[in-house]
Amino acid sequence: MKGLWFTERQNPGLEISCLTKKTLHWEKTDYQELAVIDTETFGRMLLLDGVIQTTIEDEFVYHEMISMVALNTHPNPEKVLVIGGGDGGTIREIAKHPKVKEAVLVEIDGQVVETAKKYLPEISVGLDNPKVRVIIDDGIKHVQDNENTYDVIIVDSTDPVGPAVGLFSGEFYRQIHKALTPDGIFVAQTESPFFNKDLIKGIQKDLADIFAINKLILANVPTYPGGLWTFSLGSKKYDPEKVERESIAELDTKYYSRDVHFSALVLPPFVKELMP
Amino acid sequence: MKGLWFTERQNPGLEISCLTKKTLHWEKTDYQELAVIDTETFGRMLLLDGVIQTTIEDEFVYHEMISMVALNTHPNPEKVLVIGGGDGGTIREIAKHPKVKEAVLVEIDGQVVETAKKYLPEISVGLDNPKVRVIIDDGIKHVQDNENTYDVIIVDSTDPVGPAVGLFSGEFYRQIHKALTPDGIFVAQTESPFFNKDLIKGIQKDLADIFAINKLILANVPTYPGGLWTFSLGSKKYDPEKVERESIAELDTKYYSRDVHFSALVLPPFVKELMP
After folding, report:
1. Do A5-55 and A59-272 show the same overall fold?
2. For B46-85, what is each residue's pLDDT tens digit?
3. Molecular function (GO) terms listed (chains A, B) (predicted)?
4. Is B145 in contact with B176 (CB distance < 8 Å)?
5. Cβ–Cβ below 8 Å for B262 and A257
6. Does A15 touch chain B (CB under 8 A)?
């Protein structure tokens, strides 16, 4: 088919290409190349350094699954921190939860927030929720400066290259552990079980060393390499597999549900192998 | 990256491209264009009419999930039929199951079988199993000619275009119902819940009309559009969700397990909507 195609190199031997209708925004920020394009298949799409971050069509999967499992595992997630996630999708889901009183978003690149507000209103709507406070700063610094503060901390980052590398280190996870309350829960997006096995192994080993409980959450994000994606969870006290089904808030979600809460924690043998 | 890239148009606005090392085979058969290429990311890959059918790296997901849920739902799956699946991967999984006595493969295109034997031995190995009988014929005709014969029938077909269209019709499902024993189970690959919603809705409605029980099985196949894939199941008597966990055969599988048997039947709300 004719037309302008956006192509992402997902790994050295794999590319995904999307037919585009329009380039809505492009800029070089202080941190990364930021773009929003409109595509035939997935609608408007946020790109950072040429990598698909989220799209109008499939964003619900990622944003629900990075937040809802932890929020429904903690009995009282009043204060929640999101590091990264400047598009607002994750904080939108968090703000939905009736038990959340304050949701803080710390995004290093203010241009991501501004651009999402302008071109991705369905996703950035959460940023205007009265429960939400947006801070443009370095998430690592914020975590260091706020000990014993948050019930849930979610790291909604880009891939572990460039600005995000520090967000995948054991040292950072130790700081997260300190920033959590004594029964706090941590979740981060941790890439593909098909293409990033060593990364996931290392992260889960770190979490097993630092937290009482470490789990892997699976969900399918069509625009990510291979589709199958992982979120790593570290918990000081509460086990997401031992949640009382009836205690899970029934919210307006399209991927997450009371049943999916548990099924997303079931690992096929080839994924289970990655666990310590 | 330089090199020769194979590109599949997965839908009008979406393409996947794989860096190739070598084209091992290419021919125009009586039914379709048949090729085997060696790729950097997924190893050797079987293509029919330019569409990825299976690859060495990820074939285990599809072949285990199209067969194991049904085989472990039926208490005594002695006689099993596979329509299509000429690569041998599905029959390889079926032959693994201790309760299976005879597995019949009916593939319309003998060249698929011959080519898989030559270039995809890890997948086609099942074709040489003593339990397996290979028939090169029209699967629809075979089903019409064999009433009340099979405990499990699996339709391992290409997409619903060209030669496979008839394999997605309610009329064919009625013939399958007749070819099954009185407590038989039917499974077919039924495309993507992101990109083929109407197809899946129609199939599930047909199965609900014809069978006592209809279910959707989910699995993640990285080389298929969007990753998330469905298998539709119709059963005369046995409900895959009511299987006794301990009765599930523990075989050498990489995606399927006793726990995955049940988690694969849990549908996110946006997929549940497709069910009648």
Report:
1. no
2. 999 999 999 999 999 999 999 999 999 999 999 999 999 9
3. spermidine synthase activity
4. no
5. no
6. yes
- The CATH topology of domain A5-55 is Spermidine Synthase; Chain: A, domain 2 (2.30.140)
Phi, psi at B41, each rounded to 5°: -90, -35
Whole-angstrom distance, CA of residue B10 vs CA of residue B251: 33
- Residue B195: strand, helix, or coil: coil
Q: Is B198 a residue of the active site? A: no
Extract the annotated binding site of B for spermidine: 63, 87, 156-159
The model's pLDDT over A90-109, given as tens digits with 9 standing for 90+, comes to 999 999 999 999 999 999 99
- The distance between the two most distant Cα atoms of chain B, rounded to a whole number of Å, is 57
Choose among B222, B263, B269: nearest Cβ to A266: B263
Question: CATH assignment of A59-272?
Answer: 3.40.50.150
CA distance A86 to chain B (A): 25
* Farthest-apart Cα atoms in chain A, separation: 57
Interface test with B, best of A5, A17, A62 (most B CBs within 10 A): A17
- Indicate the domain borders of chain A: 5-55, 59-272
The answer to whether the beta carbons of residues B94 and B67 sit under 8 Å apart is: yes
Place of tokens 């203010």: A110
ipTM over 0.85: yes
pLDDT in tens, chain B (276 residues): 568 999 999 999 999 999 999 999 999 999 999 999 999 999 999 999 999 999 999 999 999 999 999 999 999 999 999 999 999 999 999 999 999 999 999 999 999 999 999 999 999 999 999 999 999 999 999 999 999 999 999 999 999 987 788 899 999 999 999 999 999 999 999 999 999 999 999 999 999 999 999 999 999 999 999 999 999 999 999 999 999 999 999 999 999 999 999 999 999 999 999 999
Give pTM, 2 decimals.
0.97
Report the residue from B13, B41, B268 with minimal CB separation from A39: B13
Residues 176-235 of A with CB under 8 A from B: 194, 220-222, 225-228
E strand spans, B69-149: 79-84, 102-107, 132-136
Pairing mode, strands B180-189 and B228-235: antiparallel
* Residues A266, B259: C-beta atoms closer than 8 Å: yes
Are A92 and A60 in contact, with CB atoms under 8 Å apart? no
- Chain A: give the shortest CA distance to residue B43, in Å: 10
d(CA B218, CA B66): 10
| Helix (H) or strand (E) segment spanning residue A14 | strand A14-28
Q: Is the dihedral of CA A249, A253, A258, A260 positive or negative?
A: negative
Task: Supply B255's token pair.
Answer: 């995606």
